[in-house]
C-alpha cells in the first residue's frame, strides 16, 4: 500500500480532531491513508497524542516481552545446564546401547556386560550431579542459598529417573530377545546400583572427589561380576540370579544404600561448603 | 545505550532488522514511533478502549516474535497496519477453523489488491470529494475494503453484515465513484 | 562486615591465604595485589564457596561454618566470581532470572522487576533478550555483575569487577557500587583503587601488607620520591616518566627534588620491600 507523496500535510488541528475521534469518516479515511505513507505526519501525530497512554501501553508490551520462564526452578536448574544434559545422554548411550549390542552379538557374554554396565546408570547420575562442569554458572550458583545437597540430589534424581528405566528396559528387552534371562535378574542390579550411587553421594561430603569414587565403585562392581564368572567358569543366567539376586547380596546392598544415604543427609553441610580446590 | 545508534534516526527497516536479532531497544523505538497512530486508527474502528489496547499490544508482540514476516518491500507502517487490522478482526469475530482461515487468506490478496489499484491510483483530494457524496454505509464498506485492505469476507465480519451485502454495497460505491470521478 | 582472624587456606604446600586478620567496615574496599597473591582465594572464602583450613571468618556478623548462618549470609550476598559461568544459550534476562531463582525468589512478578532493575543498572536493557553468546566480553562482564546485584545484597564480593569494561563503564561502576553497603573487590589495577575504593588492602604472597585509605597508601612514599634528569643507581627503583625526567624511589640524596607521591609510588615501595 504505497501512497503518493502529496504536497499537503495534515495540520495539527485535523490530527487533534482525529485523535479525539471527531473526524468524519471521509476525512478520516483520507487522513489515515496519508499518515500511513508520511513519517513526518506520524511523528506529529505522536507528539499530539497522550504520552502517558503510550507509556502505559509500552509497560504492558514490556511485561509480555520480559516474561520469566514458567518452568519450576528444579527442572530449570537441572536442565538448564547443557553440559549435564550432554553427559547424561552419553551415559545413557553407554548404559543402554553397549550391553544391547554385546548381548545380541555374544549372547551370554553380553549378559555379563549388561550386568556390569546397568548399575553404572545411577552411579553416573550422582557423579554427574557433583561435577563442577555440570553447572557452568559454577561458583555463581555455589554462593546462592539454594546451593548444597538439595540441588545435587535433585540433579542426581533427574538423571537417574531417566537412566534407570532405560537400563531396566534394556534388560527386559534382552530377556525377550534371548528368552533365557529370568525377570528376577533383570532387576537384581537395582539395589547394588543404588548402593553404589549412595556411596558416591556420600563421597561428595568428604574430601574425596566423587568422580574418582564413582570410577572406583564401578570397577569394584565389575570385579565382583568378573569373580563370579571366573569362579564358576560359566555365564549362565541362573548363576547370576543366585549370586547377585540372592538375599545376601541384596540385603547387603540395601544396607549400604540406606546407610550411605543417611550418612549423606547427616553430613549434608559439607556438600555446600567444600574444603577442596 | 550507545551500542547501535546510528548518526541519525534509524529507518523502520533497520529497526526491524535489529528486532530480528532480539534487540529490545529497537522494539521500543519502533513502538514509540508507531504506537500513537496505530492506536488512533484502531480506535476509529473499535469503541472499546480495552480491545484497542489489546490489539495494539498484540500487533507489536507479533512484530517482536516474528519480525521476519516483513517481506522487505513496502512501508513498514503499512505492514504494521495489516497486522493490526487483522488482529482486530480476529478479536471481533468468533474463532474460525484453520481450514476456513486458510481459504480466506488465499482470497485476501486478489480481492483487496484489485480494488486498491483502482482507487489508490486516483488523487486523494478527488477521492475525498467523491467519497463525500456517498452514503455512510457505502463509505464504511469502502473504508474497510479499500483503506484497510480487507477482503469481502473480512469486511463483512468487521462491519457485522453479510458478505453479499458488502459486495453489493461495494459495487454501488464503485459505480457512484466512477460517475463522480470520470 | 567482613572479619577474619588468622584466616588460612592452603592448596597442597602453597599457603594461598596465610593467617590473614582483617576487619572491614562498610563502603567499597579494594583488595590490591599482583596475580597469585591470594586475592581470589580470600574472596572465595568471603563468598562462602570455599571453607577455610584454619582461622575464623565472620561475614555480616554471621559464621559461615554453621549451615543455618551460612544460608542466611548467602541470602544477603552477591558474588562475582573470577570467571563467571554464563550459559551462552541464555539471554541476560534468563541468566539474571535464573540467579534470582537460585536466590530463592519465587515471585515471578518480583523477578521481572528485579531483572529489569539490575540490567538497567549495568546498561543492558536493550540487549537483555539477545543470546549471551552474541554479546561482547564487556557486556558479559556486566551480565555477571547484574547477577551479583540481584536482590540488592548487603555484601558484594567482586573478583576483578572492572575486567573487560571500557573507561566509561568503569566510571559507571563507581556509582553502581556506591549504593551498596559493603563491597569487597579485588583488582590488580591501582588506578581502579583510587577511583572506586574508600579503603584498600594490599596483599602479597597470601598476607595483607597494608591497610588504609588510598591516600594512606600514597602516603607511604612521602619523602621517598624524587625527580631528576638522569638515572640514580642508589634508588630502589628509577623509571623514565612521560615528561622526560627520571622518577626515583628510595632514600633521596641530599638536595634532591622531592615530589608528592602517588598511589603507584606507595604500592611500588611496598612491593619492593616484599622482595628484599
TrEMBL record, chain A:
<feature type="transmembrane region" description="Helical">
    <location>
        <begin position="244"/>
        <end position="266"/>
    </location>
</feature>
<feature type="transmembrane region" description="Helical">
    <location>
        <begin position="111"/>
        <end position="130"/>
    </location>
</feature>
<protein>
    <recommendedName>
        <fullName>Putative zinc-finger domain-containing protein</fullName>
    </recommendedName>
</protein>
<feature type="transmembrane region" description="Helical">
    <location>
        <begin position="79"/>
        <end position="105"/>
    </location>
</feature>
<keyword id="KW-1133">Transmembrane helix</keyword>
<dbReference type="InterPro" id="IPR027383">
    <property type="entry name" value="Znf_put"/>
</dbReference>
<keyword id="KW-0472">Membrane</keyword>
<dbReference type="InterPro" id="IPR041916">
    <property type="entry name" value="Anti_sigma_zinc_sf"/>
</dbReference>
<feature type="transmembrane region" description="Helical">
    <location>
        <begin position="151"/>
        <end position="174"/>
    </location>
</feature>
<feature type="transmembrane region" description="Helical">
    <location>
        <begin position="211"/>
        <end position="232"/>
    </location>
</feature>
<keyword id="KW-0805">Transcription regulation</keyword>
<feature type="domain" description="Putative zinc-finger">
    <location>
        <begin position="13"/>
        <end position="42"/>
    </location>
</feature>
<keyword id="KW-0804">Transcription</keyword>
<dbReference type="Pfam" id="PF13490">
    <property type="entry name" value="zf-HC2"/>
</dbReference>
<feature type="transmembrane region" description="Helical">
    <location>
        <begin position="186"/>
        <end position="204"/>
    </location>
</feature>
<keyword id="KW-0812">Transmembrane</keyword>
Automatic annotation (TrEMBL), chain C:
<comment type="similarity">
    <text>Belongs to the ABC transporter superfamily.</text>
</comment>
<dbReference type="InterPro" id="IPR003593">
    <property type="entry name" value="AAA+_ATPase"/>
</dbReference>
<dbReference type="InterPro" id="IPR017871">
    <property type="entry name" value="ABC_transporter-like_CS"/>
</dbReference>
<keyword id="KW-0813">Transport</keyword>
<dbReference type="InterPro" id="IPR027417">
    <property type="entry name" value="P-loop_NTPase"/>
</dbReference>
<keyword id="KW-0547">Nucleotide-binding</keyword>
<dbReference type="Pfam" id="PF00005">
    <property type="entry name" value="ABC_tran"/>
</dbReference>
<dbReference type="GO" id="GO:0005524">
    <property type="term" value="F:ATP binding"/>
</dbReference>
<protein>
    <submittedName>
        <fullName>ATP-binding cassette domain-containing protein</fullName>
    </submittedName>
</protein>
<dbReference type="GO" id="GO:0016887">
    <property type="term" value="F:ATP hydrolysis activity"/>
</dbReference>
<keyword id="KW-0067">ATP-binding</keyword>
<feature type="domain" description="ABC transporter">
    <location>
        <begin position="2"/>
        <end position="230"/>
    </location>
</feature>
<dbReference type="InterPro" id="IPR003439">
    <property type="entry name" value="ABC_transporter-like_ATP-bd"/>
</dbReference>
Amino acid at each position: 500500500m504505497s501512497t503518493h507523496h502529496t504536497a499537503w500535510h495534515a495540520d495539527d488541528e485535523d490530527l487533534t480532531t482525529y485523535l479525539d475521534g471527531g473526524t468524519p469518516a471521509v476525512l478520516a479515511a483520507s487522513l489515515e491513508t496519508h499518515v500511513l505513507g508520511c513519517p513526518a505526519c506520524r511523528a506529529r501525530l505522536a507528539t499530539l497524542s497522550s504520552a502517558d497512554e503510550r507509556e502505559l501501553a509500552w509497560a504492558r508490551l514490556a511485561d509480555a516481552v520480559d516474561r520469566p520462564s514458567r518452568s519450576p526452578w528444579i527442572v530449570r536448574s537441572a536442565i538448564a545446564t547443557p553440559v549435564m544434559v550432554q553427559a547424561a545422554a552419553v551415559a545413557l548411550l553407554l548404559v543402554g546401547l553397549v550391553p544391547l549390542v554385546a548381548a545380541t552379538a555374544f549372547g551370554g557374554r553380553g549378559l555379563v556386560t549388561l550386568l556390569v554396565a546397568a548399575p553404572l546408570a545411577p552411579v553416573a547420575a550422582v557423579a554427574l550431579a557433583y561435577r563442577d562442569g555440570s553447572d557452568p554458572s559454577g561458583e555463581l550458583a555455589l554462593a546462592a542459598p539454594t546451593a548444597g545437597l538439595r540441588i545435587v540430589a535433585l540433579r542426581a534424581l533427574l538423571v537417574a529417573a531417566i537412566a534407570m528405566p532405560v537400563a531396566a528396559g534394556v534388560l527386559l528387552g534382552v530377556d525377550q530377545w534371548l528368552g533365557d534371562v529370568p525377570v528376577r535378574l533383570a532387576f537384581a542390579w537395582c539395589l547394588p546400583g543404588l548402593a553404589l550411587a549412595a556411596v558416591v553421594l556420600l563421597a561428595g561430603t568428604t574430601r574425596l572427589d566423587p568422580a574418582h569414587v564413582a570410577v572406583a565403585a564401578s570397577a569394584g562392581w565389575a570385579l565382583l561380576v568378573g569373580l563370579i564368572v571366573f569362579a564358576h567358569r560359566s555365564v549362565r543366567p541362573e548363576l547370576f540370579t543366585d549370586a547377585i539376586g540372592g538375599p545376601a547380596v541384596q540385603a547387603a546392598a540395601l544396607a549400604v544404600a540406606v546407610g550411605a544415604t543417611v550418612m549423606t543427609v547427616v553430613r549434608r553441610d559439607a556438600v555446600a561448603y567444600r574444603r577442596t580446590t | 545505550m550507545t551500542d547501535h545508534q546510528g548518526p541519525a534516526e534509524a529507518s523502520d527497516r533497520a529497526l526491524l532488522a535489529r528486532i530480528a536479532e532480539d534487540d529490545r531497544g529497537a522494539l521500543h523505538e519502533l513502538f514509540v514511533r508507531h504506537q500513537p497512530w496505530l492506536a488512533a486508527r484502531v480506535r476509529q474502528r473499535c469503541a472499546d478502549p480495552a480491545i484497542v489496547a489489546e490489539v495494539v499490544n498484540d500487533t507489536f508482540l507479533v512484530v517482536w516474535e516474528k519480525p521476519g514476516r516483513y517481506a522487505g518491500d513496502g512501508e513498514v507502517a503499512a505492514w504494521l497496519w495489516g497486522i493490526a487490522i487483522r488482529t482486530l478482526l480476529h478479536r471481533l469475530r468468533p474463532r474460525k477453523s484453520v481450514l476456513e482461515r486458510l481459504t480466506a487468506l488465499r482470497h485476501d490478496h486478489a480481492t483487496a489488491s484489485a480494488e486498491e489499484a483502482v482507487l489508490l491510483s486516483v488523487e486523494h483530494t478527488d477521492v475525498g470529494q467523491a467519497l463525500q457524496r456517498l452514503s455512510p454505509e457505502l463509505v464504511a464498506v469502502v473504508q474497510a475494503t479499500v483503506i484497510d485492505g480487507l477482503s469481502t469476507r473480512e469486511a463483512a465480519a468487521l462491519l457485522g453484515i453479510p458478505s453479499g451485502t458488502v459486495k453489493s454495497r461495494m459495487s454501488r460505491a464503485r459505480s457512484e465513484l466512477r460517475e463522480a470521478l470520470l | 562486615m567482613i572479619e577474619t582472624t588468622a584466616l588460612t587456606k592452603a592448596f597442597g604446600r602453597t599457603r594461598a591465604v596465610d593467617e590473614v586478620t582483617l576487619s572491614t567496615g562498610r563502603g567499597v574496599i579494594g583488595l590490591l595485589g599482583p596475580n597469585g597473591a591470594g586475592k581470589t582465594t580470600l574472596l572465595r572464602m568471603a563468598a562462602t564457596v570455599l571453607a577455610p583450613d584454619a582461622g575464623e571468618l565472620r561475614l555480616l556478623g554471621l559464621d559461615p561454618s554453621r549451615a543455618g548462618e551460612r544460608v542466611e549470609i548467602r541470602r544477603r550476598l552477591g558474588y562475582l566470581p573470577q570467571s563467571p559461568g554464563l550459559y551462552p544459550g541464555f539471554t541476560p534476562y534468563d541468566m539474571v532470572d535464573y540467579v534470582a531463582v537460585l536466590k530463592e525468589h519465587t515471585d515471578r512478578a518480583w523477578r521481572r522487576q528485579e531483572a529489569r532493575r539490575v540490567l538497567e543498572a549495568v546498561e543492558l536493557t536493550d540487549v537483555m533478550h539477545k543470546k549471551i553468546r552474541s554479546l561482547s566480553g564487556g557486556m558479559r562482564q556486566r551480565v555477571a555483575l547484574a547477577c551479583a546485584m540481584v536482590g540488592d545484597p548487603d555484601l558484594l564480593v567482586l573478583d576483578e569487577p572492572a575486567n573487560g569494561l571500557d573507561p566509561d563503564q568503569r566510571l559507571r561502576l563507581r556509582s553502581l557500587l556506591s549504593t551498596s553497603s559493603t563491597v569487597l573487590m579485588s583488582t590488580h589495577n591501582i588506578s581502579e583503587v583510587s577511583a572506586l575504593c574508600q579503603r584498600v588492602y594490599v596483599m602479597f604472597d597470601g598476607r595483607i601488607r597494608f591497610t588504609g585509605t588510598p591516600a594512606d597508601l600514597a602516603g607511604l612514599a612521602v619523602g621517598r620520591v624524587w625527580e631528576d634528569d638522569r638515572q640514580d643507581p642508589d634508588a630502589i627503583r628509577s623509571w623514565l616518566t612521560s615528561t622526560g625526567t627520571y622518577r626515583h624511589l628510595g632514600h633521596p640524596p641530599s638536595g634532591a627534588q622531592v615530589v608528592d607521591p602517588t598511589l603507584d609510588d606507595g604500592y611500588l615501595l611496598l612491593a619492593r620491600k616484599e622482595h628484599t
